[in-house]
């Protein structure tokens, strides 16, 4: 089946946002997590490395999930592929 230009545009936007959010996830999980142990200061009464691992990363993950769901719902409606509610 040949995809129309509109389908290609939809999948291009879907892949682009997925790639960006995966890059953010990778950065928060591995880069900040790796270098946080070198950041030796107190943040809200706890060592910063503990805060990043226990609180900060989880907040970013939830924000990534919320943004992806919101973005995809909007994109689906714009392209007419939204599920009926």
Can you characterise this structure?
Helices cover 75% and strands 5% of the residues. The chain has 85 residues and is mainly alpha-helical. It has one domain. It has a two-stranded antiparallel sheet. Strand 1 and strand 2 (46-47) form a beta hairpin. It is elongated. The mean pLDDT is 86.
| Apparent shape | elongated
User: If helices are DSSP runs of H or I spanning 4 or more residues, what is the number of helices?
Assistant: 2
Number of domains: 1
Major sheet attributes: 2 strands, antiparallel
Low-confidence runs of at least 5 consecutive residues: none
What are the defining features of this structure?
two-stranded antiparallel sheet; mainly alpha; elongated; 75% helix
How would the blueprint of this fold be written?
Blueprint: H1 5-36, E1 42-43, E2 46-47, H2 48-79
Antiparallel strand pairs: 1-2
Helix pairs in contact: 1-2
Write a compact overview of the structure shown.
This protein is mainly alpha-helical and 85 residues long.
């Amino acid at each position: 089946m040949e995809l129309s230009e509109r389908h290609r545009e939809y999948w291009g936007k879907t892949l682009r946002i997925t790639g960006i959010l995966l890059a953010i996830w990778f950065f928060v999980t591995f880069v900040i997590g790796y270098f946080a142990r070198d950041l030796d200061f107190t943040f809200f009464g706890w060592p910063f490395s503990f805060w990043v691992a226990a609180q900060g990363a989880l907040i970013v993950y939830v924000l990534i999930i919320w943004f992806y769901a919101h973005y995809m719902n909007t994109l689906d409606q714009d392209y007419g592929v939204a599920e009926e509610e």
